[in-house]
Amino acid sequence: MAKLASSSSVLALILVAASLYVIEAKQFGIGIGRPKQREFDYYNLALQWPGTYCKRTQYCCPNNACCRGSNSPTVFTIHGLWPDYNDGSWPACCTRKTFDEKEICISTLLDPLEKYWPSLSCEKHGTCSAPVTGDEYNYFLTTLNVYFKYNVTAVLNEAGYVPSNTEKYPLGGIVSAIQNAFHATPKLVCRNGAVEELHLCFYKDFKPRDCAGASSSLNDMLYSSSSCPNYISIPAYASLGEGNVESEVSWVPEDVL
């Protein structure tokens, strides 16, 4: 009887310990009960053009920056820095750990994040970046640094591709301008013939590389960017502003470039 009682006590302790481990694992995002995702292959810096994105937005909210009036974005803004796989898929939600962008460790970045990254995306994709960028602060800081270093808005402006509600530009010319500046092929996403997103891709050391599905061959690139016609527009941005009164915002100010 004594041995039976002793065995029962040991089993009870094991069950308690296992329960505590599961609770702690869930708290810190150790991925219990689901397969571990393999490490990603490269980074995809997804940028969105407010002139196209906000035209299809019928409401104002803090994370779309479409109704800031004179403070509305006049440059490509950040959609996300996404870890991707070469086969076209991507990891997501690599941990259950959530973050608060107003934590003290990120507070020094809040102003540029709010201006250039109105729709923060760390919980779903950014958590998978931890093997390279580390914690949330370094993830956001790294994204901002890459965004400013590879300034797509400035490159297109200097090449003569400026926002216009009447002009259409050759897709190949826009791609060539990016290729000449960064020595890598981007990927473009269009909506109704207008640029909505532009993706820049990087190795894990943040040196530019061709995006998966893109090609240095112009014909292949035009085929892969099937959402974009041969001639595309970069619509001038119009902010709804206060009281839903539209007011056109000029191109990026010189002091930003």
Describe the protein's architecture and organization.
The protein has 257 residues and is an alpha+beta fold. Helices cover 32% and strands 15% of the residues. The protein contains eight helices and nine strands. The strands form three sheets. Strands 1, 2, 4, 5 and 6 form a five-stranded antiparallel β-sheet that branches. It has a two-stranded antiparallel ribbon with strand order 3-7. A hairpin with a 2-residue loop joins β4 and β5. The longest helix is centred in the first third of the chain and has 27 residues. The chain is globular and about 50 Å long. It starts with a helix and ends in a 9-residue tail after the last strand. The C terminus is likely disordered.
List the helices and strands and how they pair.
Elements lengths: L1 H27 L13 E7 L1 H4 L23 E8 L25 H7 L13 H4 L2 H14 L2 H7 L10 E2 H12 L4 E5 L2 E9 L5 E2 L8 H7 L6 E2 L5 E2 L7 E2 L9
Antiparallel strand pairs: 1-2, 1-5, 3-7, 4-5, 5-6, 8-9
Please sum up the structure shown.
The chain is built from eight helices and nine strands. The protein has 257 residues and is an alpha+beta fold.
Extended strand count: 9
> Share of helix among residues?
25-40%
Alpha carbon gyration radius = 23 Å
Outline: globular
Average pLDDT reading? 74
Strand coverage percent? 15-25%
Order of helices and strands: HEHEHHHHEHEEEHEEE
Unreliable runs, pLDDT <50, ≥5 residues?
Answer: 10-34, 220-224, 242-257
* Separation of the first and last Cα atoms: 82 Å
Outline the biggest β-sheet.
Answer: 5 strands, antiparallel
Q: Based on helices, strands and strand pairing, what is the structural class?
A: alpha+beta
Number of helix segments?
8
